[in-house]
Design a protein that fits this description.
There is one protein chain. The protein has 434 residues and is of the alpha/beta class. The chain folds into 3 domains: 74 residues, PDZ domain (Pdz3 Domain), CATH 2.30.42.10; 197 residues, pyruvate-formate lyase- activating enzyme (Alpha-Beta Horseshoe); 132 residues, Rossmann fold, CATH 3.40.50. The protein has 14 helices and 14 strands. Strands 1, 2, 3, 4, 5 and 6 form a 6-stranded antiparallel sheet that branches. The longest helix has 22 residues. The chain is globular, with a radius of gyration of 25 Å.
């Protein structure tokens, strides 16, 4: 194993080595280097014996002495210093399999990479890990690891993940917990598959691994209109969503008593479908599962009200147009009314955008496309000087929608700028024209 080097950071110890592009880093202090985790772990030492293979095939070693906080400074052609690991599963609920044709290639890539879990918080199924990978995680004290569990029933996991080794790989979950690695777990819930008693059994298995299992998110399967040839799955409705919440509550209450927090959380979608109130900010604690849609509505309202409490109010006229998914429509309207109590001349219009691209069962704002937003706002009398939306509608770098339309193209077609908000404070600022 080796890492391909393309350069060095200016002023770094590596720059002084003057390595030609295409040099391979073979080892640091005798340890083989295969990716960014190896590099980051072993290059942190203050004395480094580095072994390289030059482009001509010869090998050369260097001894580097550096300060504890000084980076070695080698640069690779990818942030992982390796190819990204793709998913080996054929999950019955995979959202990527439900994408329509004709989208950009990156949309169809299925990632299942433990390094991405550590670096960016993504979830992994553990199915493409080896014993060596797990021991490396333990040795390097990489924590937390985010695991897509779905079920602790091995046979059911095999069927749900479409991988005959998926159940067997649960052994790594228990091995990591035993070694003291912190874990966050995710369950994508599918009706008639891993719900009901199967869900109860899975949750009981996971909470037995506390405190290493610090949180478990239960999220409903997302079903688009593009499921041709895929396993038939039923969406959750009001009654079935309430059954999920009723099952989770006593387990969460017990965890709260034992560990000081609920550990097990249902995503906001279940509360919205069940038409039941969300948990309080205190019950969500540190919002550890916010990326799974757990506590997003509560956090937004809490931030909004906190920011609003610092305002004196005024009589100025403020207009704002907000576009969002159907899931957040009522919350946005509610927050606008809360703000209007202090700012009586505030006028907020909330437009709920139906997701025609993926299908109407997809109601979150983060999966809206530019074409749906533009089509459904056509002919509307927008009074604000911008359109406000959550920053989740754009991909990385805030420059492109899911359907590949750029932000600039969208703004040109809309005839006004797009204002993105990241939290409740941003939202209040947008409403007040700041």
């Amino acid at each position: 194993m080796a890492v391909r080097i393309i350069g060095a950071e200016e002023g770094s110890p590596a720059e002084a080595l003057a390595l030609p592009e295409g040099t391979l880093l073979l080892s640091i202090n005798g340890e083989e280097i295969s990716d960014v985790l190896d590099y980051g772990f072993y290059a942190a030492a203050t004395e480094l014996d580095l072994l390289f293979r030059l482009p001509d095939g010869s090998e050369r070693s260097y001894h580097v002495v550096k300060d504890e906080y000084t980076q070695l400074g080698l640069e690779s052609d990818s942030f992982l210093m390796d190819k990204q690991h793709s998913c080996w599963n054929r999950c019955i609920f995979c959202f990527i399999d439900q994408n329509p044709e004709g989208m950009r290639e990156s949309i169809y890539f299925k990632d299942d990479d433990e390094r991405m879990s550590f670096l960016f918080g993504s979830y992994v199924t553990l199915t493409n890990l080896s014993d060596h990978d797990v021991e490396r995680i333990i040795k390097m004290k990489i924590s937390p690891v985010n695991v897509s569990v779905h079920t602790t029933n091995p046979e059911l996991r095999n069927r749900m993940l479409g991988n005959r080794f998926a159940g067997e790989k649960l052994k790594y979950l228990y091995r990591l917990a035993e070694a003291g690695v912190d874990l966050n777990c995710q369950i994508v819930l599918c009706r008639d598959w891993n719900d009901g008693e199967e869900l109860r059994s899975t949750l009981e298995d996971l909470v037995r691994l506390c405190p290493q299992v610090g949180s478990v998110a239960v999220v409903p399967v997302g079903l688009t209109a593009h499921r041709k040839g895929l396993t038939e799955l039923r969406p959750f409705d009001k009654e079935s969503a309430r059954e999920v919440l009723e099952l989770i509550r006593p387990i969460a209450a017990r965890c709260r008593e034992l560990y000081g927090n609920d550990v097990v959380y249902a995503s906001d979608e279940f509360y919205l479908m069940a038409e039941e109130p969300m948990l309080s900010p205190e019950e969500y604690g540190d919002y550890r599962q916010i990326e799974n849609g757990v506590g997003m509505c509560t956090q937004l309202e809490d931030e909004f009200r906190s920011a609003l409490s610092l305002e004196d109010g005024d009589e100025e006229l403020h207009y704002l147009d907000i576009a969002t998914g159907y899931a957040a429509k009522d919350l946005m309207a509610h927050l606008a009314e809360v703000a209007k109590e202090k700012f009586p001349n505030l006028h907020v219009e909330v437009y709920a955008i139906r997701n025609d691209f993926f299908g109407p069962t997809i109601t979150v704002a983060g999966l809206l496309t530019a074409q749906d937003i533009l089509a459904q706002l056509q002919g509307k009398e927008l009074k604000g000087d911008c359109l406000c939306m959550t920053e989740a509608v754009l991909r990385r770098d805030n420059d492109r929608f899911l359907d590949d339309m750029t932000r600039a193209e969208f703004e040109e077609k809309l005839g006004r700028p797009l204002r993105l908000t990241a939290d409740g404070m941003d939202l209040l600022d947008a409403m007040l024209g700041r």
